[in-house]
Structure formats: C-alpha cells, structure tokens
Amino acid sequence: MADLAGTPTPVLSVRGLRKMFGDTVVLRDIDFDVLPGQAVVLIGGSGSGKSTLLRCLNLLETVDDGDIHLDGREITDPRVHADEVRRRIGVVFQAYNLFPHMTVLRNVTLAPIRVHRRPRAEARDRARELLTRIGLADKLDVYPDRLSGGQQQRLAIVRALAAGPALLLLDEITSALDPELVGEVLTLVGTLKREGLPMVVATHEMAFAHEIADEVLFLDAGSIVERGTPSQVLDNPREARTQQFLARLTAH
Questions:
Q1: Cα distance between residue 53 and residue 63, in whole Å
Q2: How far apart are the C-alpha atoms of 199 and 141, rounded to whole Å?
Q3: What are the tens digits of pLDDT across the range 5-25?
Q4: Residue 15 to residue 13: CA distance in whole angstroms
C-alpha cells in the first residue's frame, strides 16, 4: 500500500511515544517509521530504553502518551485487543523462552494451531519447511535442552516466523550466546532481512547493525539522540553521546 505521492505506507509508525515507570520517564518523544522491507536497528547502553521500547511496540507495556500504528491501524487505542496485535508481530527476546517439555516441532506449531487456528497438517508442513531452512530438519523430535545455544536461538526465531508475522522484533538475541555461536544466528536474521521481512532490532553487535540496518537509532536515557544510516551514525556520529558510546564499545 502507498499514499497518493507513491510513498509506501509504513508497516510500523511510532509518534510521540512516552513511557513512565512511576515518576521516572524511561522513553520520551520517540518517533520513527519502519517501511516495508526495512530494518530499524536500536543501539545504546544498558538502561537506554531499547528493551522497553520493543515491549511497548508489542503492547507488553502500556504506553503513557503518543501512538503506535501497525499497517495503518492505531494499536495503542484502548479498544484494540492486545492479543490480536501480538498475533501479527513476531518477537524474540534474549532468553529463548522455548517450551522445554515440547519437541522442536511442537514448539514451532503450537501458536499456529492454537492461536491462529491453522490446520494441523498445514502448520506441521510450514514448520518442517522452516526448520529445514535453518538446518534443524533432523531435530524435529528433539527437546530444546538437547540443542546448542545457537540452535535454540534459531529455533526461537523460526517459532516467531511460523505464523507469518507482519513485523519481527528482536531484542539482543545474541547476548546469551557464546561468541562462536553468534554468527549462525546473525546469518539467519540477515537472510530474513534480504527477503524483505520488516524488523526492529536491538543489538550491541555493531558490525551486524552496519550490515542490516536501513536506519540506526541511538538511544540514551530514553531519548533518540541520533539517527541516520549506518554510515552516518556508526562511522561518522555527530553527537558527543553517540561518539562516547561507540568509543566505549571499541575499547573493549
């Protein structure tokens, strides 16, 4: 869909978003769009508001001011059913959140069958297709604790994809992984980006951000301090706080 000027309608549009915990403002005046096929990458230190922003986008946190539109529909309207919105958004957090008592196949098919009411055979076929794609076709009947950390995180991403989401949210998905397992997860996300799945990604992997981002947002103390292309923000930051943050990363 596009407007009369030919500009694509954003998959996600955020305007004036504000979030408070008690008297503390944790997000203030957040504005950004995600266009079809785009990846918006959030960077910033611990406590900068990245995870809270992602939780607001999925309505896991109540927004105190501003609005969020998904495919042109305001989802922060109190009359909107949050569960309906969440069915259209795939989310992967730092922890895998896999069901330990369910096999790999059952983990992937549970939501499509129970939540989306897909026929069991259709859901299983789709799950097998996705699992084959990420190299887990031989693990269908295995339980998550028999997988490596990288395999578990790839499984968590596939589970988020199984229902065909309009938008994917990824929150520091490599932070719990051993360094040698990070690459296989980031490769999968890069493939999804090239295939045109819109996403909002919080990451501390700057090389990865450089590779997949259409726009980088640097958050500090709950505000977007700097935004632009990866080249602008990561290679030539203008703001002192962005420069300091990136300098700390390269010093480690």
A1: 10
A2: 30
A3: 567 889 999 999 999 999 999
A4: 7
Q: Sign (positive/negative) of CA torsion 192, 195, 200, 204?
A: positive
**156 domain residue, yes or no:** yes
In order of 7, 102, 111, the CA distances from 4 in angstroms are 7, 49, 37
Contacts of 95 (CB under 8 A, 6+ apart): 176
Distance separating alpha carbons of residues 150 and 136, to the nearest angstrom? 11
Q: What are phi and psi of 233, to 5 degrees?
A: -85, -40
Share of the chain above pLDDT 70, in %: 97
How confident is the model over 148-159, as pLDDT tens digits?
988 998 899 999
Residue 76 sits in which domain range? 12-251
Examine residue 2 and state whether it is found in any structural domain, yes or no: no
Q: Write the DSSP symbol of residue 166.
A: S
Tally of domains within the chain:
1
Task: Reduce the DSSP state of residue 219 to 3 states and report it.
Answer: strand
Angle between helices 104-114 and 120-133 (to 10 degrees): 140
